Amino acid sequence: MSDEEHHFESKADAGASKTYPQQAGTIRKNGYIVIKGRPCKVVEVSTSKTGKHGHAKCHFVGIDIFTAKKLEDIVPSSHNCDVPHVNRTDYQLIDISEDGFVSLLTENGNTKDDLRLPTDDSLLAQIKDGFAEGKDLVVSVMSAMGEEQICSLKDIGPK
């Protein structure tokens, strides 16, 4: 045997995978898919039959769930596509800091302080106005592939 010591540097994070494989032909409208490395909501799927020896192909049109950019991809229907694990969690808004971060109350009573205000102007205005008026606000946070962003807002009444 060898007397050498081997050191391996692990760059992977422990825990669940960010995506799972799913056959392209089974992905439907309003589902999720990874296009060009971005998690997208599928808004349009069309399947085309190709020639004698070719595969049927699926043409996906998706909207990035974080940036709202439109992305397209064409995949043979028998091949696997990556589908992101998308989670939606509701948190109560506690505070908004000057540097654009929000303080949120989690289910177990802890605070979550690592989220920025959303980039969507209308949602941003709704959150700031509601908070300034002293309303109790609940924000929905969408998370996928290691990213998180506030995606919607609910008003649960005045404080």
TrEMBL record:
Residues 1-12 have a biased composition (Basic and acidic residues). CDD domains: S1_eIF5A. The keyword Protein biosynthesis applies. Residues 1-21 are annotated as: Disordered. Belongs to the eIF-5A family. This is Eukaryotic translation initiation factor 5A. Translation factor that promotes translation elongation and termination, particularly upon ribosome stalling at specific amino acid sequence contexts. Binds between the exit (E) and peptidyl (P) site of the ribosome and promotes rescue of stalled ribosome: specifically required for efficient translation of polyproline-containing peptides as well as other motifs that stall the ribosome. Acts as ribosome quality control (RQC) cofactor by joining the RQC complex to facilitate peptidyl transfer during CAT tailing step. Residues 85-154 form the Translation initiation factor 5A C-terminal domain. GO terms for biological process: positive regulation of translational elongation; positive regulation of translational termination. It comes from the Eukaryota. Keywords: Hypusine, Initiation factor, Protein biosynthesis. eIF-5A seems to be the only eukaryotic protein to have a hypusine residue which is a post-translational modification of a lysine by the addition of a butylamino group. It holds the Pfam family eIF-5a. The keyword Protein biosynthesis applies. GO terms for molecular function: ribosome binding; RNA binding; translation elongation factor activity; translation initiation factor activity.
